[in-house]
């Protein structure tokens, strides 16, 4: 599940009633503060949840329905890149339940079809995304997700990052 929360800002497309929201602690938990304690007020919330059973094309359609058409930058979407394998999938297991799987192939994936020291597999927001998922000057955005990296994951040692801000 990926949740994007926009707070202390406004959205022309959102008619969500403002409400206080939980402020996470360092362990990911949190309690809903009173109005006086709230660090910010919820203006809009967008959630993308995996079903675990979708095909790759259904997964991509689900992501784009939330973050906008063209919001996926995965190797299989760029000519000259690793196009034979979908790079964002949905799976279900007994520990996590339904979840998204982002695949990275150290020696096969590139950066939007250009062979370089970088690899890209991401969901992004941009000018074609709804206002609810865009951050604007003076607004606060909160993102929440659960993330697991397998201990035997092997990427290029030249350049790798997760969720750049």
From TrEMBL:
Q: Where is this region: Disordered?
A: 1-41
Q: Where is the composition biased (Low complexity)?
A: 1-20
Protein name, per record: Dystroglycan-type cadherin-like protein
Q: Which organism is it from?
A: marine sediment metagenome
């Amino acid at each position: 599940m990926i949740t994007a929360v926009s707070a202390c800002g406004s959205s022309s497309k959102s008619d969500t009633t403002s409400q206080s929201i939980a402020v996470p602690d360092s362990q990911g938990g949190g309690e809903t503060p009173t109005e006086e304690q709230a660090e910010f007020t919820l203006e809009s919330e967008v959630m993308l949840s995996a079903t675990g059973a979708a095909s790759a094309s259904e997964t991509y359609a689900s992501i784009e329905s939330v973050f906008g058409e063209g919001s996926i930058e995965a190797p299989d979407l760029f000519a000259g890149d690793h196009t034979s394998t979908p790079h964002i999938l949905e799976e279900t297991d007994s520990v996590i339940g339904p979840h998204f799987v982002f695949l990275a192939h150290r020696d096969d994936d590139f950066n939007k079809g250009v062979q370089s020291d970088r690899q890209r597999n991401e969901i992004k927001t941009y000018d074609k995304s709804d206002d609810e998922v865009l951050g604007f000057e003076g607004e606060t955005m909160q993102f929440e997700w659960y993330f697991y990296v397998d201990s035997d994951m092997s990427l290029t040692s030249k350049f790798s990052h997760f969720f750049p801000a």
